[in-house]
Design brief:
Largest sheet: 7 strands, antiparallel
Helix content: under 10%
Number of strands: 14
CATH architecture of the largest domain: Sandwich
Order of helices and strands: EEEEEEEEEEEEEE
Radius of gyration: 29 Å
Oligomer: single chain
Length: 206
């Protein structure tokens, strides 16, 4: 009887199957022999690619940031300088995209004022390569002591070397006061409330 015609119930198991550990698979050793073993990614020729956004940089400023006067822009800073393979952050707040691709950037700002009278109007904008991108954001306060958190998540498709900065400004239509406020909790076990935070993720995959 040809082997192909032997019923499954009468066929012999593969050599080594009777002593193989649970959940091991038959693996070619490349020399004409086989072994039952547990496999991992190092044994797989076509490893699947994971598509999605990966975190590449995060930083924050623990300093209050106040424009010097009305109608004078102040570039927002996000803490100490740092560099990754994909993104660099300068101490003056300039972000440089070192590699081309699709990025998601989250900004968290805490607008406020700790003095002054009347209304203050704070403006905020993002610049790419020195030119404004998107519309201007506006906050108005009539309270002398107030802090308002603001966050935005934006997508960017950039080439390598693209720079991004953020400005705030006191509008002369209002009082010369206000900016980005940092707060240090009295409780030592609580972390600081930064004036400005930036989180950058990059799309990876096919």
């Amino acid at each position: 009887m040809e082997h192909v015609n032997i019923p499954d119930s009468q066929r012999h198991e593969v050599k080594g199957a009777s002593t193989a550990a649970l959940n091991t698979v038959l693996h070619s050793d490349g020399d004409g022999t086989t072994t039952f073993k547990f496999v991992d990614y190092s044994n797989i020729a076509n490893v699947p690619t994971i598509d999605g956004y990966e975190f590449v940089l995060s930083s924050f400023s623990g300093a209050t940031q106040l424009p010097s006067s009305v109608d004078v822009p102040l570039q927002v800073t996000f803490g100490s300088a740092q560099t990754t393979a994909d993104v660099s952050l300068a101490s003056n707040g300039t972000v440089t995209f070192n590699t081309a691709g699709n990025y998601i950037v989250t900004f968290i700002l805490r607008f406020g004022r700790t003095g002054g009278t009347g209304n203050c109007i704070l403006l905020n904008r993002i610049k790419l390569n020195g030119l404004q991108a998107f519309n201007t954001n506006t906050c108005s306060f009539d309270n002398a002591f107030i802090t308002v958190p603001f966050s935005a998540t934006l997508g960017f498709n950039v080439i390598a070397g693209t720079t991004m900065t953020m400005d705030i400004m006191r509008n002369s239509a209002g009082n010369n006061s206000g900016g980005l406020i940092a707060t240090t909790p009295v409780q030592a076990s609580w972390n600081i409330s930064p004036s400005a935070t930036i989180i950058v993720s990059k799309f990876s995959g096919s």
